[in-house]
Design brief:
The protein has an eight-stranded mixed sheet. The protein has a five-stranded mixed sheet with strand order 13-12-14-15-16, with helices on both faces. It is elongated. It is of the alpha+beta class and about 425 residues long. It folds into two domains: about 15-170 and about 230-315, BirA Bifunctional Protein, domain 2 (2-Layer Sandwich), CATH 3.30.930.10; about 325-420, Anticodon-binding domain (Rossmann fold), CATH 3.40.50. The protein has 15 helices and 16 strands. Strand 12 (about 325-330), helix 12 and strand 13 (about 355-360) form a beta-alpha-beta unit. The structure holds adenosine-5'-triphosphate and magnesium ion. Adenosine-5'-triphosphate binds next to strand 6, strand 10, strand 11 and helix 11. The site of adenosine-5'-triphosphate has 18 residues, from strand 6, strand 10, strand 11 and helix 11.
């Protein structure tokens, strides 16, 4: 075994899985397109400040999960831990917020976390963001879009929509005060993490995975009591819209999300099919972020899907995409292969939808046919000595025993096109 291994938490996606990823990507691109969202491609590296300012200095991500380094010019840069900050940066930089923007992006994100099932140090997110709409129809559309994606992938029944309103920054401030007062009275019952957060970022204590903390929080004041009227009205409108399409939801008053920039609506799609890593998608509104990055005040909302967790769900359902081979070409030796080569190129152009593999590396007919069988192809195409002499080719069915036909070279493409068309009509 080699001494070289991938870096801990950074995972290779092997051919046996990449087809499933491609299918996932194709389904999401189609759904996003249908809803009128356009792709934006963003750099993987941004300035460290971009993340610390937007995600929040006192968050897990910025405090202990970022891959931060100084470049050769001593500028502090970070591998992106999420996509919203970079997307907002690009919107402001290119002045896109003049008009309503509905954007999506996809790619690797980096967080220094303890690797486990559904948690990696390099993972992938599909992010969707809408800019320039203050009304909750945007929130509703984002949720329905994600739901359409679950339907397209056949995982809808595994996922639950949890939703909450965290109100305006002002109402959150009032809530924070009340929460700190309550938790200070129970300081001795707090675990170390929560004691620390009580000083730095008390709202994050609500996110604690420690069951003792969750029990204690049962008696704590809740954010709902502090929500401002506008946030409350918008939340009611959003729920009305979800009701109108029959989209079920669970209102989770504990849901606050770990990033600082959210306001009003926050939501997560969760599953119990993945153990502790049960959140497949999270998002919400972030009306203050664009202005914070120096742009004109622009309301916005978005969400991000953890694609590894989605792939785990699909695999758990036994979804597997097998590679396609339609035709496998076997030849009787060097001269026959040389003869076949240009003909196969022409055939590939004539039948762009068929996967046509030419056997490589020589070998006996027997071994070549074994490969042809294993490829799953429907036909083997045989260029033997007699075919070579008569400018013809033999087409052998690999599905029905003994069925074969020898055709003049120039009739092959048409014959195959008809055979494959019949298959579709079957
Ligand atoms: P978690 O509570 O699981 O750490 P998070 O709140 O940190 O999630 P977000 O920042 O909201 O996650 O990112 C959106 C989604 O990205 C998550 O819901 C999850 O599906 C996925 N995700 C986040 N961190 C990782 C990771 N380290 N490995 C794999 N997927 C991740
Ligand atoms: Mg996290």
């Amino acid at each position: 075994m080699t001494d070289y291994r991938s870096v801990r938490g950074m995972v290779d996606i092997l051919p046996e899985d990449s087809l499933l990823w491609q299918r996932l990507e194709a389904v999401s691109a189609a759904v996003l397109n249908q809803y009128g969202y356009q792709e934006i491609r963003l750099p993987i590296i941004e300035t460290t400040q971009l993340f610390s300012r937007s995600i929040g200095e006192v968050t897990d991500i910025v405090e202990k999960e970022m891959y931060t380094f100084a470049d050769r010019n001593d500028e502090s840069l970070s591998l992106r831990p999420e996509g919203t900050a970079g997307c907002v940066r690009a919107v402001v930089q290119h002045n896109l917020q003049q008009t309503v923007q509905k954007l999506w992006y996809q790619g690797p994100m980096f967080r220094y976390e303890r690797p486990q099932k559904g948690r990696q140090r390099q993972f992938h997110q599909l992010g969707v963001e809408g800019f320039g709409v203050a009304t909750p129809d945007l929130d509703a559309e984002l949720i329905l879009l994600s739901s359409a994606l679950w339907c397209g992938l056949g995982v809808k029944e595994l996922l639950t929509l949890e939703i909450n309103s965290i109100g305006s920054p002002q109402s959150r401030g009032l809530f924070r005060e009340a929460l700190v007062e309550f938790l200070s009275d129970h300081r001795n019952a707090l675990d170390d993490d929560s004691q620390r957060r009580l000083e730095t970022n008390p709202l994050r204590i609500l996110d604690s995975k420690n069951p003792n903390m969750q029990a204690l929080l049962g008696g704590a004041p809740t954010l709902v009591e502090f929500i401002d009227d506008e946030s409350r009205d918008d939340f009611a409108t959003l729920l009305e819209m979800l009701d109108a399409v029959g989209q079920p939801y669970v209102i989770n008053n504990r849901l606050v999300r770990g990033l600082d920039y959210y306001n009003k609506t926050v939501f997560e799609w969760t599953t119990d099919a993945l153990g502790a890593q049960g959140t497949v998608c999270g998002g919400g509104r972030y009306d203050g972020l664009v202005a914070q990055f120096g742009g004109r005040v622009t309301p916005a909302a978005g969400f991000a899907i953890g694609l590894e967790r989605l792939v785990l769900l699909l695999k758990g359902l036994g979804r597997h995409v097998t590679p396609q081979t339609d035709i496998y070409v076997v030849t009787a030796g060097d001269a026959a292969q040389l003869h076949a080569l240009p003909r196969i190129e022409t055939l590939r152009q004539a039948l762009p939808d068929q996967a046509i593999q030419l056997h490589l590396g020589g070998g006996s007919f027997k071994s070549q046919f074994k490969r042809a069988d294993r490829s799953g192809a429907r036909f083997a195409l045989v260029y033997g000595d007699s075919e070579l002499a008569s400018e013809s080719v033999t087409l052998k069915s690999l599905r029905s025993e003994g069925e074969q036909v020898t055709l003049p070279d120039n009739q092959l493409a048409e014959f195959l096109a008809e055979s494959f068309a019949e298959k579709i009509g079957e």
